[in-house]
Amino acid sequence: MKVKQILFTKVNTAEFLDLEIPMPGPDEVQVKTAVHTISCGTERANITGSDSVGIYGGPNVTFPRHCGYSSSGTVTAVGEHVTDVKAGDRVAVLGYKYQSYQNIPQEAVIKIPDGVSFETASMAYITTFPMAAVRKTRIEVGEPVLIMGLGILGLFSTMFARLAGGTPVVVADPVQERRELALSLGADYAFDPTEPDFADKVKSVTDGGAAAAIEVTGVGAGLNSALDCMRSFGRVALLGCTRKSDFTIDYYRKVHGPGITLIGAHTLARPLYESHPGYFTTRDDAKAFFKLCELGRMDADKLVMETHDPRNCTEVFTRLINDKNFPPISQFDWRNI
Fold first, then answer.
1. What's the rounded Cα separation, in Å, for the pair 153 and 147?
2. Which of 84, 156, 187, 317 has fewest C-beta within 10 Å?
3. What is the CATH number of the domain that holds 116?
4. With b meaning 16 or more CB within 10 Å and e meaning fewer, what string describes 48-78?
5. Are residues 325 and 241 in the same domain?
6. pLDDT score at 56
7. CB of 245 within 8 A of CB of 172?
8. Domain ranges, residue 204
9. How many CB atoms lie within 10 A of CB 292?
10. Residue 257, class by beta-carbon neighbours within 10 Å (0-12 exposed, 13-18 middle, 19+ buried)?
11. Is residue 99 domain-shared with residue 217, that is, in the same domain?
12. Which of 204, 236, 264 is the endpoint of a domain?
């Protein structure tokens, strides 16, 4: 079967190409893609040839490279062992690639509830990352929470922290438009972390410091600034992928002395099969996201800032590489491909 794909063929180059795929295997589901959400940080690292992609990244970067991992679509065929879904079902896809059709293991698809759009469902996998980070910090009702960085993960962290009872929820990002968006999503205060009195501002609205923080920038300066804003015995979830290790933290004064807990919050640091408090499986976190949307506690559709035709992928990814203000939540719509 001939399908279409987006492929990073060489450094800084995305192309829209043909691909042959077989019929699904016995345990696979074939999905016609509807919408795919762009994960800016991961995809920028991949297309630029970063040797730090993934927690097991290394210096031997090769092309072509596939990317894309959070999408939605309609089941078109299933293997003989598949029982959870059938042809015609709308599903969210947890992982996999930018393709018009894909063959996916049945455990990596989840039915989309009625009333949840393809656009929202295509964000489900990405939302499980900040949801896991918020769970790991064990936020208590009334505790002040700091969110460092307002890309897609930071924006969802803001909403989940508020839902978990964080009070107040304080956000930080150098871009004013992102701060304003976070305030519209439920943040109580928003500050520019590059200002010299940033830590003082955070401490003034949190009665001395944040009890929990979600660090989403993935850069050393972001973690360093977050630590300056913590109260004693605070917890910091390291959600952002720190792709470069060339920074120094004064661990003695900023971690050891005040008793700060640093929590690894990569999405792979979770159980595969059985959820328990603080550590849910990916599927259970995705289902929780859907339930929040079904009950009207979260409106993810309004977060989508741009929608693109996959045939324009070269221009879209060129912008992603070069434009620091590329919208944090953008999507590809495959329904006419």
1. 10
2. 84
3. 3.90.180.10
4. eebebbeeeeeeeeeeebebbbbbbbbbebb
5. no
6. 47
7. no
8. 127-264
9. 18
10. exposed
11. no
12. 264
Give me the residues paired with residue 16 across strands: 6
Phi and psi at residue 103, in whole multiples of 5°?
Answer: -100, 120
In the block, tokens 């150098």 appear at: 174
8 Å CB contact between 152 and 214: no
328, two tokens: 């944090």
Q: Are residues 242 and 316 in the same domain?
A: no
Total structural domains in the chain? 2
For residues 10 and 107, membership in a common domain is answered with: yes
SS (H, E, C) the chain: CEEEEEEEEECCEEEEEEEECCCCCCCEEEEEEEEEECCHHHHHHHHCCCCCCCCCCCCCCCCCECCCCEEEEEEEEECCCCCCCCCCCEEEEECCCCECEEEEEHHHEEECCCCCCHHHHCCHHHHHHHHHHHHHHCCCCCCCEEEECCCHHHHHHHHHHHHCCCCCEEEECCCHHHHHHHHHCCCCEEECCCCCCHHHHHHHHCCCCEEEEEECCCCHHHHHHHHHCEEEEEEEEECCCCCCCCCCCCHHHHHHCCCCEEEECCCCCCCCCCCECCECCHHHHHHHHHHHHHCCCCCCHHHCCEEECHHHHHHHHHHHHHCCCCCCCEEEECCCC
Q: Record the pTM.
A: 0.93
- pLDDT, position 9: 96
Q: For residues 137 and 182, state if they share a domain.
A: yes
